Amino acid sequence: MSHYVASVHWERHPEQSFTDNRYSRAHVWHFDGGARVPASSSPHVVPVPSSDPAGVDPEEAFVASLASCHMLWFLSLAAQDGWVVDHYRDDASGVMARNGEGRLAMTVVTLHPAVSFSGGKQPDAAALAELHHRAHEACFIANSVKTEVRCEPVLD
């Protein structure tokens, strides 16, 4: 079993009273490898100036986590199958809406991976779809959420 940690740090600015709900939502994510990521609530949820649009919000991080996990599995499976991947880009998106229980949730995350290959072995559309399917089935993050995760590859 593996164990993963992230540390989230937030501190109230002394001039903010807090109970008036006008405090900064800006905070920092710290990861075990030393990475520090500025974070905030989404300006779609908490208006600026209480949110910092320069920070990564949890909804963006959720979408990025799914896209990153899918990509890492895709690259691993492609290498195992002998495909040479030169470039991978995914402009993933997520939709916040009411779920079946009437709660706001990320109800759909859509991946749009665009992959470039080189070498003599080039996947056709069927092989590419199968590779993405296998990556989706293996993705730890996709296997961990109730959200429907769609993969709509962009053919290069």
Descriptive keywords:
156 residues, alpha+beta, GMP Synthetase, Chain A, domain 3, 2 domains, 3-stranded antiparallel β-sheet, 3-stranded mixed β-sheet, 2 helices, 8 strands
Structural description of this entry:
With 156 residues, the chain is α+β, with helices and mostly antiparallel strands. It folds into two domains: 1-56, 2-Layer Sandwich (GMP Synthetase, Chain A, domain 3), CATH 3.30.300; 58-151, GMP Synthetase, Chain A, domain 3. The protein is built from two helices and eight strands, in the order βββαββββαβ. A hairpin with a 5-residue loop joins β5 (93-98) and β6. The model has no long low-confidence stretch (mean pLDDT 94).
- How many extended strands? 8
Largest beta-sheet details: 3 strands, antiparallel
Broad CATH class of the largest domain: Alpha Beta
Tally of distinct domains: 2
* Number of DSSP helical runs: 2
Kindly report the name of the CATH homologous superfamily of the largest domain: K homology (KH) domain
Write down the CATH topology of the largest domain.
GMP Synthetase, Chain A, domain 3
Cross-sheet strand order for the largest sheet: 1-2-3
Mean pLDDT: 94
Strand content: 25-35%
Distance between the termini: 38 Å
Low-confidence segments, ≥5 residues, pLDDT <50?
Answer: none
Classify the helix fraction into a percent range.
10-25%
Computed CA radius of gyration, to the nearest angstrom? 19 Å
**Large-scale geometry:** elongated
CATH architecture of the largest domain: 2-Layer Sandwich
